[in-house]
Amino acid sequence: MNNLTLPHIALGMTLAMTIFPSWAMADDRISDKGLYRVRWQSQAPEVTTDLIHDWLLHVETVDRRPADNLAITISAHMPGHAHGLPTQPRATDYLGNGDYRIAGMKFQMSGVWWVRFDFWRKNRRDWVIFEVPVK
Question: Which of 9, 31, 82, 125 gets the highest tally of CB atoms within 10 A of its CB?
Answer without folding.
Answer: 9
